[in-house]
Amino acid sequence: MKYISTRGQAPELSFEDAMLTGLARDGGLYLPDEIPTLSKTEIAALSGLSYEETAFAIMRPYIGETFTDTEFKELIAKAYAGFGHAARAPLVQLGSGHFLLELFHGPTLAFKDFAMQIIGQMFQAALERSGKRITIVGATSGDTGSAAIEAFRGLSNVDVFILYPHGRVSEVQRRQMTTPSESNVHALAMTGDFDDCQARVKDMFNDFDFRDGVSLAGVNSINWGRVLAQVVYYFSSAVSLGAPHRQVSFTVPTGNFGDIFAGYIAKRMGLPIERLVVATNQNDILHRCLSTAEYRPDGVTPSISPSMDIQVSSNFERALFEAYARDAAPVAQLMDELKQSGFSVSQGALQALRESYDSGNCSESETSKTITRTLAETGELLCPHSAIGVKVAEEHLAADTPMITLATAHPAKFPDAVEAATGIRPPLPPRMSDLFEREERVTRVENDLAAIQTLIKERIAH
Ligand SMILES: *Cc1c(COP(=O)(O)O)cnc(C)c1O
After folding, report:
1. CA dist., res. 401 & res. 398, Å (int)
2. How close is the Cα of 256 to the center of ligand 1, in Å?
3. pLDDT higher than threshold 90 for residue 372
């Protein structure tokens, strides 16, 4: 299987190279040249499999010759061994026809672990084979950074630099990034918001001298390997509710559009998904774009769901590429316009997007109310991101199709917002209960590309 760029000007790559590269050299994002499908019989056969066995069945067609079956099974086993729940992604019922998929039992308590843990294993195996050394640079609104650091800490052939917006992540998120003591981990607190961090990382990838000089690799949610790993739990949860013999819908708390795009891939692979609902917080550019065709960033307003405080939603480019029937030229054009004031999607593409996605938004007060009400009605303590999903899902419930809402983080990752809504301060799981005693190590940086590049070069020289 070959991987192609959404902007049509970068070389086609194998799975291994697309994964190690992250962003394509033309600024685009990699996608498989064709999406494999599973027959109804093959999907039915997933019923009763372990999460790991399902992961192997779903991901195997995409990885080509990169790993043998035996190797790949071992990597999957290691990736999910550190999860705090035997089911990995357990499904609980919230109400009639409404289910919650708990994706927060991984080592850093957010769904990002599902992808980052397997990516970490795959990177390590590929690098050991080639003897190469790489520098991972990522931007985070909080959860990607902690998941990446957890996945790569202590590896001998990788340095990992994470840029996060100073003062705009929760204390648990920050501590998960700043307390690992391994010398290959570098947490950088940057002045600005997440979009600024993401923009500087993109600049580094577009500076080819720097990119090649430090062997830059990306693990942001644009990395195809991450999207692929997230396809798995759409299958495991839908099958447990009766797919392929029954349709299901999903609602996904959305920021960078990686998680919901994985749902779209699951649908294209043959999973009978009726609706995919994009749930946004008050930074609702995706909801506005799907409603009006206009995609015009107007600055991020910090919220109690910081991992969704995003206006430049990078994986949306993949959705646009599909909506424009895989024609790279208009996508490249829109992405150029985005550097100015934004863009408007053509009528044809908007119609295609609406065939695939519904959307809704949720204000700060509605988020808190949903946390309070869900606890009272079901006993489930939601994090603010998951609460946004639940609220928007409730507006899209249909009588005959079960709705699965993705719970993207553990409530203990956002204890202030949860306590304000319920009076309960959710405790961290025992395995990380000493997080607040551990020593922090962080470097403050300005929003200055050259200064950040110099710092990275100095650090990896040692
Ligand atoms: C990253 C994140 C999201 C948004 O996911 P995307 O793939 O960026 O759309 C939502 N909730 C939480 C808790 C997250 O960490």
Report:
1. 6
2. 7
3. yes
Any catalytic annotation for residue 112? yes
Closest ligand 1 atom number to CA of residue 112 = 15
Return phi, psi of residue 135, to 5°: -115, 115
Point out the ligand 1 atom lying closest to the alpha carbon of residue 310.
Answer: 8
User: Ligand 1 centre and the CA of 23: distance in Å?
Assistant: 19
CATH classification of the domain holding 376? 3.40.50.1100
The residue with tokens 């969704």 is 308
Evaluate whether residue 172 is within a structural domain.
no
* Beta carbons of 372 and 304 less than 8 angstroms apart: no
Q: How far apart are the first and last CA of the chain?
A: 38
pTM of the model: 0.95
Domain that holds residue 338: 87-106+224-422
Residue 177 dihedral angles phi and psi, to the nearest 5°: -90, -30
Determine the distance separating the centroid of ligand 1 and the alpha carbon of 41, expressed in angstroms: 32
- Structural contact between residues 160 and 149, judged by C-beta atoms closer than 8 angstroms: yes
Q: pLDDT per residue over 92-128, tens digit each?
A: 999 999 999 999 999 999 999 999 999 999 999 999 9
